[in-house]
Write a structure and sequence with these properties.
2 domains, 656 residues, nine-stranded mixed beta sheet, Dynamin N-terminal domain-containing protein, 21 helices, globular, GTPase activity, GTP binding, Dynamin_N, alpha/beta
Length: 656
């Protein structure tokens, strides 16, 4: 085995825990398939849903960071494909790119799928000049807003001229390809030089219009069903793709924040901090990249760690966030042509190992070891397995236990009915009516209570907004009285974001309790049906409730606001000395910037969460109804459900 092959094998071993987890999941899938082969009719749909969920399980990891932090270089290193993603992408045209490793549900005959902005998204971009244009206009910077709009309009015109008649047909569509190659990726993801494009070059020809890219990679030895997402830089000049990045993060269960080692880290990038604050700390990993560019990596990484920890602690984020150091560049050298490593980078590596080496095999091993990529593999695997992985297996086991409990109850009734028992007090039609009654009462109560939670959330968010407005006006008034309308004043909206996040979390906790109450109502109602109408006793305490869905992190709160901009725009409100008019204008600005947050938290985050919980309640209702119907069938038609191989004997509980 060559030294390169050996290094690549060692590189893949970092994902060992995740591969072990997938082996457990494969065992679970096989057991459920065997159970489905001998399942009673009422259990077929729940088992099919369980199998579908197992086969669709694909944890997602978002890679975020500033432009030039080396995200794409690091992502290439993570998957061992050293030249897959372009590593020097213009921030205006960077595209969110999902790398699906060994996917079991990729589209047929598709290895690369590129989706384009639709007409509404494209037109809104030009009409407003993007988020930056919106904020400039709100702040009174009409000239600056117009400048942004002009630049975006020019970009649109250039794109339309370049694509010609093809432009209109691309909007809202997608392109799929059966194979992946670098030229293909460059056309859709990598920004091309405008002058070269005019001369017929193909690099970046579709990049302006591409909204997202999905690449499906078959990589032996790597985990299956894992998605790694490369995201646009959070310091995107025009913030045109900011919300796309935030949406991707809200769908991920692990977020890798990539920092560049030679950036000032005493305060970290505020956009990154906002994102970290909007998700759970246990889902965040910080990777300080490009340490190969530090003359003395060992000494300087200690200083950087202290700085980051101090910043996180100040924000109350110190617990649960793991900080790793390394170099995607070193990893790519180790996996490729290590002899071509840049001189300065090789010197930095030598400083970590007590001197340089002429042995390329040893240099390769040093580069892989010091790259930190194997440690990042292990950290990602650990977060996935201990987080969504274990939760998914536990939830699936609960669903199977519930099916086993109902199956054994039906078989018990079938085995004990010889035709001499008293017939039940209701028939099939009456039972259906009773089940509908339970369903109606349960969903009516759920909907009413959730509506109350929604109203309370909106009210609480409104109070948070008013509290922030009042504090901002007081602080600004005090500043102007003391110092006059000078530049050095800011009012950080972090407290507003925290109040809104707390309000949202509280509403989601109440929603979860309403889901539990709905499950209880279903069991109580069905217990009455079973006992009073069918004469069957059931121990409801042994019934496992289905797990409610995880709610999306409210990453909308990480969106850049005018109030985040470090600019003296607020001075314009005071330049004519009309205090009340200035305060009214400032209040109007704050409300205009923060009201969309209130609306989106309610309609784009809470409402879908409530709908997902309601769906779970309806599925539980349907399953309990089919269980009661199976019981009635056994009583009315003895022998209709002969005892079969017990699910419990087919499905052993999987050890952790």
């Amino acid at each position: 085995m060559s030294d390169t092959s050996s290094i690549r094998k060692r590189h893949r071993e970092g994902f060992r825990d995740l591969n072990d987890f997938w082996q457990r999941l494969d065992e679970l899938e096989h057991a459920v398939e065997e159970m489905a082969d001998c399942a009673l009719a009422f259990a077929e749909d729940p088992l099919d849903r369980t199998l579908e969920a197992i086969r669709a399980f694909e944890p997602s990891v978002s890679i975020i960071g500033q432009v030039k932090a080396g995200k794409s270089t690091l992502l290439n290193a993570l998957i061992g494909e050293t030249d897959l993603l372009p590593s020097d992408v213009n921030p205006w045209t960077s595209v969110i790119t999902g790398l699906h490793l060994n996917s079991r549900h990729r589209p047929r005959d598709t290895r690369a799928l590129f989706r384009f902005f639709d007409a509404h998204e494209w037109d809104r971009l030009v009409a407003t000049g993007g988020r930056l244009g919106e904020m400039a206009a709100r702040s009174g910077f009409e000239a600056e807003a117009e400048s942004v709009r002009t630049q975006v309009t020019e970009m649109r015109q250039t794109t339309e001229d370049r694509l010609g008649d093809e432009f209109a047909s691309l909007l809202g569509s997608s392109h799929a390809f059966p194979e992946i190659d670098k030229d293909l990726i460059d056309r859709y993801i990598c920004y091309g030089d405008p002058d070269e494009l005019e001369e017929g070059a193909t690099e970046g020809v579709y990049a302006d219009l591409t909204k997202s890219a999905d690449l499906y990679l078959d990589l032996p030895g790597y985990p299956k069903g894992l998605c790694l997402r490369d995201t646009p830089g959070v310091n995107d000049t025009f913030m045109m793709r900011e919300q796309i990045t935030l949406n991707a993060i809200s769908e991920s269960r692990v977020c890798v924040v990539v920092l560049s080692a030679h950036q000032a880290l005493s305060t970290m990038d505020v956009a990154l901090l906002r994102i970290i604050c909007s998700v759970e700390a246990r889902e965040v990993l910080i990777f300080v990249n490009r340490i190969d560019e530090l003359p003395e990596p060992e000494a300087e990484t200690g200083r950087i760690r202290t700085s980051i920890e101090r910043t996180l602690s100040r924000l109350g984020l110190g617990d649960g966030i793991e900080i790793l150091f390394g170099s995607g560049y070193w990893a790519n050298c180790a996996l490729g042509d290590v002899g071509a490593m840049m001189t300065a980078s090789r010197a930095a590596l030598a400083s970590l190992h007590g001197g340089d080496t002429e042995d390329l095999q040893e240099l390769r091993a040093r580069a892989l070891e010091s790259s930190g990529v194997a440690a990042l593999h292990r950290a990602i695997a650990r977060r996935i397995v201990e987080g969504p992985g274990e939760a998914f297996i536990a939830d699936t086991q609960k669903e199977i236990d519930a099916i086993i409990e109902m199956t054994e109850a039906v078989e018990s009734v079938a085995g004990g009915t010889d035709g001499s028992a008293a017939r039940p007090g209701i028939g099939t039609a009456e039972l259906a009516a009773r089940i509908d009654e339970v369903r109606g009462e349960t969903l009516e109560a759920f909907d009413e209570n959730v509506s109350g939670i929604r109203d309370a959330l909106r009210e609480r968010l409104g109070r948070a907004q008013e509290t922030f407005v009042a504090s901002a006006l007081d602080a600004l008034g005090a500043h102007v009285r003391t110092f006059g309308a000078v530049d050095a004043w800011t009012h950080d909206p972090a407290n507003l974001r925290m109040m809104m996040k707390t309000a949202f979390a509280s509403a989601c906790a109440r929603l979860r309790r309403e889901g539990e109450a709905a499950f209880d109502n279903v069991l109580d109602g069905m217990h009455d049906v079973l006992q009073s109408d069918l004469g069957v006793m059931r121990e409801t305490r042994s019934v496992e409730f289905p797990e409610q869905p995880q709610h999306k992190a409210p990453t909308v709160l990480a969106r850049t606001l005018t109030l985040d901009l470090e600019a003296p725009w607020w001075r314009r409100f005071w330049k004519f000395g009309a205090k009340k008019a200035a305060e009214a204008r400032y209040r109007e600005l704050i409300l205009a910037e923060t009201t969309p947050l209130v609306e989106e938290l309610v309609t784009d985050f809470f409402d879908p969460a409530a709908a997902r919980t309601r769906d779970i309640v309806e599925v539980f209702l349907a399953e309990q109804g089919k269980f009661a119907e199976a019981i009635l069938e056994c009583v009315l038609e003895p022998g209709a459900a002969e005892p079969r191989a017990k699910g419990a004997s087919v499905l052993p509980r999987l050890s952790a």
